[in-house]
Amino acid sequence: MINGAHLIVYSRDADADRAFIRDVLGYPHVDTGGGWLIFKLPPAEVAVHPTDAAETHELYLMCDDLERTMEELRASGVEFADPVSDQGWGLLTAIMLPGGGRLGLYEPRHATAYDLS
Fold first, then answer.
1. Per the domain annotation, does 50 fall within a domain?
2. Per the database record, which ranges form the VOC domain (predicted)?
3. Is the pTM of this model over 0.90?
């Protein structure tokens, strides 16, 4: 039986991004050796969106209060790639990762599935 999901974030500076997730976001982790950290994520959900373009996969972190979360992250030196935009389904921004990537962050206004049993 499937009992979890494993997401991969590709990075031009994996060590810096791992340190960011460990030290700034504070996610618990295991060290599989050689600095390869695997992080425990908050509860998650998956959505399937239609597209006529190339199929891609995206990762977004969710929060209950985007403004407060951004203030807390800024206090830790986090920079944001985008100003907050109201998408109707939620408030959206993106965190700049040290390796140059972006990590979506949003406050959903839609029903969520991550706490279903």
1. no
2. 3-108
3. no
